[in-house]
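Issue: copy button drops trailing tokens. Both records pasted manually instead:
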Amino acid sequence: MIFAIITIIVMLVLSAFFSGTETAMTGASPAIMHDLEKNHHNPRAKTINRLFEHKDRLIITTLLGSNLSNTLATALSTSVLINLFGTEGVAYATVIMTILVLIYTDMLPKSYSVRHADSVALAMAPLINFFVKMFFPLTYVLQKIVNTTFKLFGLNKPENRDKATSLAEIRGAIYMHPDSEGCEEKEMLKAVLDLSEVTVYDVMNHRSNLFSIDVNMPIKKIINKVKDSPFSRIPVYEDRPENIIGIIRVKALLREAIDCGKDYSKLDIRKIMYDPWFIPDNTTLLQQLQMFRARREHFAVVVDEYGDLQGIVTLEDILEEIVGDINDECDIMSLDITGIRKSGANSYIVDGQVPLRDLNRRFGWDFNDENAVTIAGYLIDAARNIPEAGQKFEFDDFRFEVIKRHKNQICQIKITPLSSEDC
């Protein structure tokens, strides 16, 4: 009898082990395990990753071990109690084993494993790996029976995890991360996933704000204009600003100017500039980033479907979508480049051509950019007309005041948040 009682206890412990391990293995993070294996060379994480490659075999092993343990423990306890109490022992065994199995081999180990899935999985990895190998002949047969049953009922079609599903899973994991920790990193990861959904038109420098030079302008005037600019690459046009015929590197221009001494007549701007790279305005940022890398280029001219100039996009524009504004000493000295100036305690004077995405990213606002790209377009869409200078509006917890309008273009807007929220 003592041997039977000891065996029952051992079986209950094994049942708790299999039950807790099953919950831990199904709840453990594959991403964390891969990180532990690749970056920390954790042998137990490596074992878990190998087990994850055959999850069906792992699950069958845990279920088999749990059921065998429970069945043997129940049979032995029934036999012991029948010997002690006769036929009433069956009822006693049923009640006692139900309580023990429910609480100590199911609820407790599973509850703990749910809360500490990764640590429990790492702790139990060597032992469960041993049982997977030991039960392999039996689990192989059971798996064949399960697969055959699936085929009979037409359930043998594997789940196809396409790219969209994988991205949705990653995006969900990022959103589940607590806002109180790593808020900036969280926003950067979101931005990386959004690169395939944002087009260059949304982040480009619009043609109305384009800094460019006329190819027919005297060289001396070109040099004087270029030397004070904050840009390293400048579009060159002929006849009209929309007709971009080349791109000039400021460094190359100044080098040629120094080599020519004071005789600028020797300098031919057409020989220094290189051909512009035109891209469609519906190119996604992910596609453009890949093309920038492939061509080893940092600068592209954006055109619409008719070939009309829309603006320019640079590698920095795309990187800013991920990491936020990158302001160097030139940006700080020339505030007009950003188009945003603080006015009062909680108000901002914003140029009409500032993109909504820049405002949302910089201040944590939530302007809807589905129907408009710039803040001027947003105000026109919301007001259903072109507001006059001095007009005030309130939309979506913001107060807008048109400061300056030129013809049909809203040039400056004063924005005052009526309420502010943290990241």
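Record 2 (pasted manually too):
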Amino acid sequence: MNSPEALKALHEKWVRECTCTLKEGATQAVVGDGNPQADIVFIGEAPGKNEDLLGRPFVGAAGKFLGEMLDDIGLKREDIYITNIVKYRPPNNRDPLPEEIDACKEWLTEELSLIKPKLIAFLGRHSMNHFFPLEKISAVHGKLLIRTWPGLGRQHFLALYHPAAALYNGGMRSTLKEDFAKIPAILKKIKSETTAS
């Protein structure tokens, strides 16, 4: 079974088995989307209204801004993989609760272990705090973080502000674009380390 089929089967399994209570109020699960062999996976926090209706992550204004930033570094949406820590829309776009994140965490880990990305980029503090609960995004955005994670092994992470927050804050927007611009060099460094080891 190749990666697209394996991912499809994984999502189908979790749509059936996920016990997240957000399921009750959501239109559908919003599963990860993109290239199953991507070097980079972006993780947001939860689907919004547009995502819930269309069943794809990052299809609203934040997704459009993300697409522009990918374009700036010579990547397309098809080159990357994008998902959320929670696969169902929270009511009124509120932040996902710890138990909701917990209910979706194995789904996310299995998704990441199938893709085996070289770099995982967090879009916002919620996805970052899932992996790094003590970090503040204002302190670590744009920095490469490394840790071993169960089911993933030693992994490289990059914390970024969420594109939605940056849309309404000019200063954050330019910071996010600057941090985003570091991605090609970071990926190159990780690849050269992997080749050397």
